[in-house]
Amino acid sequence: MADFGLLSVLIWLPIVGGLLVLALGDARIALARWVALGTAVAAFALSVSLWTGFDAGTAAFQSVERLRWIPAFNATYHLGVDGISLPLVLLTTFTTVPVLIAAWTVIEKRQAQFFAAFLILEGLMVGVFTALDALLFYFFWEAMLIPMFLIIGIWGGPRRVYATIKFFLYTFLGSVFMLVALIYMYLKAGSYDIADFHALPLTYTEQFWIFLAFFAAFAVKIPMFPVHTWLPDAHVEAPTGGSVVLAAVMLKMGGYGFLRLSLPITPDAARELDLLMIVLSLIAVVYIGFIALVQTDMKKLIAYSSIAHMGFVTLGCFLVFGGGGGLGIDGAMVQMISHGLVSGAMFLCVGVLYDRLHSREISSYGGVINRMPVFGAFFVLFAMANAGLPGTSGFVGEFLVILAAFKASFWYALIAGTTLVLGAAYTLWLVKRVVFGPVANEGVAALEDLNGREFFVLGLLAAAVLLLGVWPAPLLEVMQESVRHLVEQATASKLP
Amino acid sequence: MTPTPTLASLAPALPEIWLTVAACIVLLTDAFAGRSARRITPTLTLLLLALGAAAILVWGQVDQRVDLFSGMYTADPLATVLKLLSFLFTAVALLYSRHWLEARGLLKGEYYVLVLTALLGICVMVSAGSLLTLYIGVELLALSLYALVAFDRDSGIAAESAMKYFVLGAIASGCLLYGMSLVYGMTGSLLLGEIAVAVQGQGVAPSLGLMMGLVFVVVGVAFKFGAVPFHMWVPDVYHGAPSPTTLFIASAPKIASFALAYRLLAEGLAGVEPAWGQMITIVAVLSALIGNLIAIAQTNLKRMLAYSAIGNVGFILLGFVAGTERGYEAALFYTIAYVIMALGSFGVIVLAGRRGFEADELDHYKGLHSRDPLLAVLMMVMMFSTAGIPPFVGFWAKLQIFEALWASGHAPLVVFGAAVSVIGVFYYLRVVKLMYFDAPGDLPVPERHTGVRFTLAINAAAVVALGLFPQALLELCQRVLP
Question: What is the DSSP string of A161-211?
């Protein structure tokens, strides 16, 4: 297929756009906003053309670009997408658009920098999902921390400094061990190409340590119990847009890492340790679900709910050995995309309320529906999706993973199934306390319903959630071949 | 035996000859020019440095190793590159310093003469072919630096730190000289090439005398680098010296320390690498750990960066621990990258202050972003780069050290290095936090000197460019090391 470096454009267009916005500055903020939005929309349009040009019939990487980068390390500028990374690229470019629109007039200080930070972040995140060279992957993976660090630190809440430094150190600590593993494999394979790593024969002991190093990086990122504690802090303190990107895209990098690196590179270690991963995932689903139940802060509640949902992703990934096969990975992928949309939407909803009353406490609200009927409808829809109601995207992923869990073991499925109760409990209780009931106080009584901009943003996400819920087939089709190939890689032993 | 030197055969020694002449020119100009004409000294010095660098490029280049003066002096591609870089870094340091010195009435010719003699010392060390030449270079550099630290004679803290530097430096020089005398006694030669032949094959267990010599030599090297446990002078000197002097000490002399370690240990004493490797390992590990840990507790930015320098020296020495060609390449890359970053960060310190307000406490950087966005963003680039985060050059420096260490069988040190670099991130982030997340209060706005700020911006651009495309510098390091 003829190609003009579409992936490079997707990475560098937002970064260049971001620098341009930065150059325009707060003095010409009106223009800067439109430049930012234009860049984001253009990037999304280009990624849609990537989707339409994608051949779902093969597991091979497509739109491949390969340029000389650092011959001294035998590292190349190697990009490409397959059925696993393509949906995530789309999710990234899609999410940035509502984030920018939602922040249109809400951000009070350093607006140009705010928009620029998100654009640069977008480019770097696309880089992570499309890099086929491990060094390039790591390069984007780490570089991405810088804009996020600034986003939380500059525009965040009262405890933002604590939260952002914790976020940075936590993820950086996890990542350096991944770097060590990458160096080790480079010395063995003679190149940083991920395909070479996939083909690299490794003994069990090597696989074991490499798996743990990857685990350190990805488990923190996704995050898994017990290394999840940075996430509630980061989410609570981040500005709305930061929370959305964090939940919608950044967490997915952990899941992507497991699928792209852990499973194919260390299949035998993953097979041996899958019980550990499954148990940790189930703890996340159940225990974190209970924790979500007792939260009094809306953002914190959604943050914990994110961790529980990510438990499903890791569960789906590691059911591949127990008989779950491709079904679990399918479920994990759908869950990632769906959670990206749903949690992003939930954070935007909280943002809408926060912009009006400047409180995230559940107790500050009550009876919001009386004053904001349209908002209430959206909020209930997203809450239902979060709880996994059939007809929304949340249902598809959870259903597939539970199905895969049944194939593996009845008990896994039973424990995972509790999420249907727990998820419904904490989400619906949240809805009840915030949206329904009598008008709780004067603040709520003075609320005004969504303006056009907010309506557009939430409507966009609602459409996506419903579309994916009733018609997930295009997503499943696009990743079918890649998942099949991945299952082959993961279940084929590398041991002699 | 040796042929009478002709003018042409002296060409490889051009840098040193040029610097000697340049120092004299600056000294005489300054002495005889009137008070008003003295202001040309900084420009004259920069011009002489530029001409010198151009002359080296045209006439002073060598394709392979050339020994002069009966082997006392060595010119090789490594020396040429290190000298050119030292010229460049010194020129940049002087450029950043000018307004600072002028505003505080310290713009005197002696400052520039001392910097030139220090640079001469660096060049002599870089080209040393024998222990004696090496020692002369070390002393020439050290004596110039002592005077530079005490340059602001009205400042009590500067005098104190110069005194500490001098006393400790003298002891270290003594150690180095004593170690050299033992090495000479055991090998029968002062020439590094002959020493290398003499110690060949002595491996892990050299004779007791040589071992003693090695210990003292390593102490000397560690002191000049500022490595733990011989680091005590570093924070005091960095803190107490006038900021331009700190800027200079953090830049080109690090190249000299690399040259000292490389000429002495990797070339002269390569045969007993296992023996000194053990000692350097301890020094390197302690430096990386203690430097990064203690930096966290600092409230003064210059002191914090001093401990950061100690930590970074630990990483450079880890390259020597690898003991392989890749290791030395990595150490050289790290040294160059570190100096570029140190120039940038100390450059910001020099520029962020104004007369009556030295921007050296961490708290002085609160809200720098709203007072001076350019300086803040440059400092942020330097901090992230020094922390080793892509897309900046510091990342590649660390990566190479890790790779060389692992390839030479030091896997635990790689894990150690990775863990230590996480500790380091904390205090670099704190500087970013102060500049970007905190309110500025009523701190003064830095003066704006367009030309200097432009240079500083180029400095930061180099950090980014080398971060995105490190290949050129990597190739350079590979080419010059045999």
Answer: HHHHHHHHHHHHHHHHHHHHHHHHHHHHHSS-BHHHHHH----HHHHHHHH
- Interchain proximity A70–B421, CB inside 8 Å: no
- What is the pLDDT, as a whole number, of residue B60? 76
Residue B152 clears pLDDT 90, i.e. is over it: no
Distance, CA of B371 to chain centre? 31
Which residue carries 């109601």 as its tokens? Answer: A389
Do A117 and A151 contact (CB within 8 A), yes or no?
yes
Interchain contact, B436 vs A183, CB within 8 Å? no
Whole-number Å distance between alpha carbons of B239 and B222: 20
As a whole number, the mean pLDDT across chain A is 88
Kindly report the nearest CA distance between residue A435 and chain B, in angstroms: 34
CB-neighbour burial class of residue A358 (10 A; exposed 0-12, middle 13-18, buried 19+): exposed
Contact A183 B391 (CB under 8 A): no
Q: How far is residue B475 CA from its own chain's centroid? A: 21
pLDDT for residue B4 is more than 70: no
For A239, how many CA atoms within 13 A lie in the half-sphere containing its CB?
Answer: 24
- The strand pairing partners of B138, in sequence order, are none
CB pairs < 8 Å spanning A and B: 83
Q: How far apart are CA B129 and CA B123, in angstroms?
A: 12
Cis peptide before B229 (omega within 30 of 0): yes
pLDDT digits (tens, 9 = 90+) for B43-102: 889 999 999 999 888 887 778 888 888 888 988 889 999 999 999 999 999 999 988 888
State the CB neighbour count (10 A cutoff) for residue A161: 18
Of A73, A164, A169, the CB nearest to B422: A169
Q: For the segment A117-173, what is each residue's pLDDT rounded down to a tens digit?
A: 999 999 999 999 999 999 999 999 999 999 999 999 988 888 889 999 999 999 999
At B152, the amino acid letter reads: D
| Residue A34, C-beta contacts closer than 8 angstroms, at least 6 positions apart | none
Q: Which amino acid does the sequence have at B374? A: L
Contact present, A444 and A372 (Cβ < 8 Å): no
Interchain proximity A153–B395, CB inside 8 Å: no
CA dist., res. A104 & res. B370, Å (int): 22
**Which residues in B lie closer than 8 A to residue A139 (C-beta atoms)?**
390-391, 395
One-letter amino acid for residue B84 of the chain = L
Cβ contact A161–B389 (<8 Å): no
Question: At which residue do the structure tokens 């780069």 appear?
Answer: B385
Are B474 and A70 in contact (CB < 8 Å)? Answer: yes
Residue of A nearest to B475 (CA): A72
CB A362 within 8 A of CB A379: no
Residue B330: pLDDT over 90 = yes
Residue A2 clears pLDDT 60, i.e. is over it: no
Give the tens place of pLDDT for each residue, B90-117: 999 999 998 888 888 888 888 999 999 9
Q: What is the pLDDT of residues A180-193, one digit of tens each?
A: 999 999 999 889 99
Coil, helix or strand for A185? Answer: helix
Q: Are B317 and B254 in contact (CB under 8 A)?
A: no
What is the interface pTM, i.e. ipTM, of the complex? 0.91
Please tell me the pTM assigned to this model: 0.93
Of the candidates A102, A97, A5, the one whose C-alpha atom is nearest the C-alpha of residue A45 is A97
Q: From CA A151, how far away is CA A167, in angstroms rounded?
A: 12
The answer to whether residue B436 neighbours chain A at the CB level (below 8 Å) is: yes
Q: Do A173 and B422 touch (CB under 8 A)?
A: yes
Is B476 near chain A, with CB under 8 Å? no
- Give me A428's structure tokens: 């619906």
Given pLDDT bands bounded at 50, 70 and 90, which one contains residue B315?
A: very high
